[in-house]
Amino acid sequence: MKFMTALSLTLVVFVFGAAAAWAQGAGPTDPQIAAIVVTANQVDIDAGKLAKSKAHAPQVKEFAQRMITDHSGVNKSATELVQKLHVTPEPSSTSESLQKGGDENIAKLKTLSGAAFDKAYIDHEVAYHEAVLNALDKTLIPSAQNAELKALLVKVRPAFVAHLDMAKQIQGELSKSGA
Amino acid sequence: MPSVVGLTLRGWRRWLWPAALLLSSGDIAAADAKHPAQAAVHTVIIENMQFNPGVLQVHHGERIVWVNKDLFPHTVTATSHAFDSGSIAANSSWTYVASKAGEYAYGCTFHPTMKGVIKVQ
Fold first, then answer.
1. Would you state the pLDDT for residue B39?
2. Do B110 and A66 touch (CB under 8 A)?
3. Is the CB of residue A80 less than 8 Å away from at least one CB of chain B?
4. What's the confidence (pLDDT) of residue B25?
5. Residue B80, CB half-sphere, CA atoms under 13 Å: how many?
6. Residues 6+ apart with CB under 8 A from A70
7. Is residue A162 within 8 angstroms of chain B, CB to CB?
8. Pairing state between β B63-68 and B41-47
9. Going from the N-terminus, what domains does chain A have, and what CATH number goes with each?
10. In which order are the strands placed within the sheet that holds B63-68?
11. Cβ pair A73:B110 closer than 8 A
12. B49 vs A77: CB contact, 8 Å cut-off?
């Protein structure tokens, strides 16, 4: 419960903190959006790598592999686009809080094992994908200036929706099996 | 320099045209027997975590090409296991010849939310 509270707080800070930080002026710049996208994908790849080796249930392991593959594909395209556009990703409070949240998640997951690990990992995946979708819709897509960067954000959105559905499905299965 | 290239290309074309004609007339002769001269090729685009069109009607013997325009791999896997593409990488495609009549529900084994149907007449 303590873990969930800390986790939710991090994600709440990510979404609403970002919105508040940009509420008065314009939204994040394209270089800041680029850094947010790359960081958001990378923290989920890192969590996936840990879960692939530590998860207990087969469907959780499979999900972890899918996160590694899909988010790596998105980051490859994001990196290629950023190079093509000559945009240098620029850290912001949002990308930093994402990284911090990712690091804390991994530190916490490392202390868990078995069914408790599976539940904590999947719970975080649900909250994470919800938070990123929220950020995409409310901040990132509306703020992106470059048409190709905006198009990439729009293109990756359905993957986050599908991942969220998949994570919720597994969350339901785990709770039924008493995990 | 470009004129030299042009000449060379033209020279090649002179040789290639009769060969191409021979090939295509052979194809038509062979195709006349049982199948239409050009069996239709259908394309299903995989993009935004969807198969488009979601439902596709084809005649048996026709080709279906699935083109993956997403940024990561997908599969085209029949629920009945009548066909299974295995992993189709981003920007790659997979071709299947619909050989047997029937209705085939399929999906992506990587992303269970993705579903499609092939109706083979």
1. 75
2. yes
3. no
4. 41
5. 7
6. A159, A163, B71, B72
7. yes
8. parallel
9. 2-176 (1.20.1260.10)
10. B50-52, B41-47, B63-68, B93-97
11. no
12. no
Which of B48, B73, B110 shows the shortest C-beta gap to A158?
B48
Measured between alpha carbons, how far is A47 from A24 in angstroms, rounded to an integer?
A: 34
Answer whether B4 touches A (CB < 8 Å): no
Cross-chain residue pair A73–B49, CB shorter than 8 Å: no
Judge: B71–A159 Cβ closer than 8 Å, yes or no. yes
Cross-chain residue pair B71–A169, CB shorter than 8 Å: no
* Residue A51 contacts residue B55 (beta carbons within 8 Å): no
pLDDT tens digit string along A72-106? 999 999 999 999 999 999 999 999 999 999 999 99
What ipTM describes this predicted complex?
A: 0.84
* Backbone dihedral region for residue B64 (phi beyond 0: left; psi -120 to 50: alpha; all else: beta): beta
- CA dihedral (B52, B57, B59, B65) in degrees, to 10, reads 10
User: What would the pLDDT profile of B24-66 be if each residue is shown by its tens digit?
Assistant: 443 444 444 455 556 789 999 999 999 999 999 999 999 999 9
How many A-B residue pairs are in contact by the CB < 8 A criterion? 37
Closest residue in chain B to residue A80, using alpha carbons only: B71
- pLDDT single digits (tens) B13-33: 444 444 444 444 434 444 444
Q: Does the bond joining B112 to the residue before it have cis omega, within 30 degrees of 0?
A: no
Tokens of A12: 């709440």
CB proximity under 8 Å: B 41-100 to A: 48-50, 70-73, 90
Q: How close does chain A come to B89, measured CA to CA in Å? A: 10
* Cα distance between residue B7 and residue B75, in whole Å: 46
Of A8, A3, A18, A4, which Cα lies nearest the Cα of A96? A18
Tell me how far apart the alpha carbons of residues B77 and B121 are, in angstroms, rounded to a whole number. Answer: 19
**Residue that has been written with the tokens 């439902």 in this structure:** B55
pLDDT given for residue B28 in this prediction: 40
